[in-house]
Design a protein that fits this description.
Strand content: over 45%
Radius of gyration: 24 Å
Number of strands: 9
Strand order of the largest sheet: 1-2-3-4-5-6-9
Largest sheet: 7 strands, antiparallel
Structural class: mainly beta
Oligomer: single chain
Order of helices and strands: EEHEEEEEEE
Shape: elongated
Distance between the termini: 45 Å
Helix content: under 10%
């Protein structure tokens, strides 16, 4: 089973053309797996076409137990500035401490928006994101090509934490459905 509990406190203040904010977020994720898989017999014909895998899951034995807890503590701040009547910019930062790996993750982000017209806005944004859990995909046997289920695992080391630099460019049409 997977369970998550968290909380967030955010404070914002705004003046004409400016907004700043800061906050704290805490998330606790628990992973608890315990399975016992019993194989049913294959028929002779089935074994010709479907090689019998050693395990139902490609990364664990038929009897498997895994229990892990992780807490992420994040502090974030941002500033949004109206640079002109049509041009807005946002810059922010999120620092996250990952309890399980004792890693400190740095996540900067920025976004600019330009109102071509009141009905059409263009934007460009960048952000760095992290994923502190992963899925194993290595097959225990080369015969097993089918992976019907996925189970998540917490990163135990900092180099197992996936990093993504996200760049977005787009057009917003906020009044499209409000006709």
């Amino acid at each position: 089973s997977i369970s998550e509990l968290g909380g967030r406190v955010e404070l914002r203040t705004a003046t004409t053309g400016k907004e700043v904010g800061a906050g704290v977020e805490v998330r606790r994720m628990n992973l608890d797996y315990n399975w016992r898989i019993k194989w049913q017999g294959y028929t002779d014909l089935e074994e010709i076409f479907i090689p019998r895998a050693q395990s139902f899951f490609d990364y664990a034995p038929d009897l498997f137990t895994y229990a892990s807890k992780n807490m992420n503590l994040s502090v974030f701040l941002f500033s949004r500035i109206n640079l002109s009547e049509r041009f807005d910019a946002t810059i922010g930062y999120r620092g996250t401490y990952v309890e399980r790996t004792r890693a400190l993750l740095h996540s900067p982000y920025c976004n600019v928006e330009y109102a071509v017209t009141p009905e059409v806005q263009m934007y460009l944004g960048y952000g760095r994101y992290y994923q502190t859990f992963y899925v194993l995909k290595d097959s225990k046997t080369k015969d097993n090509f089918f992976s019907p289920f996925t189970a998540y695992f917490h990163s135990a080391y900092g180099d197992e934490i996936a990093t993504s630099d996200h760049l977005a460019l787009g057009v917003k049409l906020p009044e499209l459905l409000h006709g």
